[in-house]
Design goal:
Layout: H1 2-28, H2 32-37, H3 50-57, H4 59-92, H5 98-106, H6 117-126, H7 134-158, H8 161-169, H9 174-185, H10 187-202, H11 206-211, H12 220-223, H13 235-265
Helix pairs in contact: 1-13, 3-13, 4-7, 4-10, 7-10, 10-13
Length: 271
């Protein structure tokens, strides 16, 4: 009985998660009129692949794709580099006030970017980084650091101190131990952090909307607004655009899911 209830709950949750994607895909291969007439139905007429081809042929789509890739690469690379350095200091280096510094950093987990959007915008404007991709990349890196440091620090702590002492005896410097021993061994945790940052930055909508006033700098999530007119929304192309937006993120997650699980659970340390 308990097993059957568990399967029922799992199937129900899967349907809740998958149904919006199925509805979006169904709407993307229909006309807007057919979608509005039967939002939850299946295509009854000819499949409208033109919704996809029109978007792919549009130069604005590729420009938004370029911006999304730039933001995602910038956020992920900076986050991984800074978080790994901070995690190393907080886990392997003894200094006065380390506990206080860690607690202050962890406070960042309590304040999501949406809550702090006004001071973030004011700070970005004072730095003359509005209408600049750096104005999106740097705040996302800052607000993503606490979670990344938590993951990496727990993994670094699990690495035996005897290994560090042995490396120093062999003539390895602190940076050499960090670069050549610690980082390769922490590859699962680093991969997990990178994957989480890729997904978060790829799907970010609100911060680019506030910071980037120039449509030529808009990433893919903001490109959806081109289908919104004064008197309504062209829903069929919008659904096709959403599918083109989420498919890369979903495929990337499916390909790297095992690394996320290994990195978040500690996994097996490998040299």
């Amino acid at each position: 009985m308990k097993t059957g209830l568990k399967y029922f709950l799992l199937i129900f949750l899967c349907l809740v998660v998958v149904s919006p994607v199925v509805m979006t895909f169904s709407g993307s291969i229909r006309t807007t009129g057919e979608f509005l007439a039967h939002p939850l139905g299946l295509p009854r007429g000819e499949i409208q692949l033109q919704n996809y081809t029109d978007i792919i042929r549009d130069s604005e789509f590729w420009n938004s794709l370029k911006n999304s890739v730039a933001i995602t690469f910038g956020v992920t690379s900076l986050n991984v580099i800074l978080a790994s350095m901070l995690a190393f200091v907080f886990s392997r280096v003894e200094f006065w006030g380390r506990g206080i510094a860690i607690n202050i950093l962890m406070l960042g987990l309590l304040f999501p970017l949406v809550i702090a959007i006004l001071p973030v915008f004011i700070q970005v404007r004072q730095l003359n980084m509005t209408n600049n991709l750096l104005g999106v990349i740097l705040p996302m890196v800052a607000f993503g650091l606490p979670g990344s440091v938590v993951i990496l620090r727990s993994f670094f702590i699990a690495i035996p101190t005897e290994l560090e002492d042995a490396s120093y005896i062999d003539g390895c410097t602190t940076f050499g131990f960090f670069r050549h021993i610690l980082m390769p061994m922490a590859r699962p945790a680093i991969t997990a952090v990178a994957v989480l940052q890729v997904i978060a930055s790829w799907n970010e909508y609100f911060l680019p909307l506030v910071i980037l006033g120039n449509p030529k700098l808009w990433p893919l999530p903001l490109g959806i607004m081109q289908f919104q007119g004064q008197y309504g929304t062209d829903w069929a192309p919008t659904m096709a655009y959403i599918m083109l937006l989420i498919v890369p993120a979903v495929l990337f997650y499916l390909l790297t899911e095992k690394y996320i699980v290994t990195g978040l659970t500690g996994g097996e340390l490998k040299g």
